[in-house]
Design brief:
single chain
């Protein structure tokens, strides 16, 4: 005959099992408690990992925005460089055209800077005492 123990819901006060059925029930309860504790631990780990994933997603979005801003700046600088190269080409062609015109009309090349001499200042005689 099997003995049924009344525990009032407290599983820690179960007396040692005597029969194979009681051993099986005690083993099942212990397995359930172990699995429940393991599940709770895994749920805590999952929650922590989900929080880390959320933080990582926010960081990734920030880095993407920063990368887009950097790409925009690079594009702006490239446009500025292209405009400067265009202006340089225009000025070079203007200079070449001016040289051609001067040569066509036989205007001699003259230095752009000429050496000048300034008149010497007149020194007044010092007053006599």
């Amino acid at each position: 005959m099997t003995t049924v123990h009344q525990t009032n819901g407290d599983l820690k006060n179960i007396p040692p099992a005597q029969t194979p059925e009681e051993l099986a029930v005690a083993h099942g309860i212990a397995s359930f408690q172990h699995l429940r504790a393991e599940r709770d631990e895994l749920q805590r780990k999952l929650s922590k990992l989900e929080q880390q994933q959320t933080v990582s997603k926010i960081e990734i979005e920030g880095l993407r925005a920063e990368s887009a801003a950097a790409a925009s700046r690079v594009e702006s600088y490239q446009t500025e460089r292209d405009n400067a190269v265009t202006d340089l080409a225009i000025y070079q062609s203007l200079f070449t055209t001016m040289q051609g015109i001067l040569r066509a009309f036989g205007i001699e090349h003259a230095p752009l800077v000429k050496k000048i001499t300034l008149p010497r200042p007149i020194v007044d005689d010092p007053p006599s005492a």
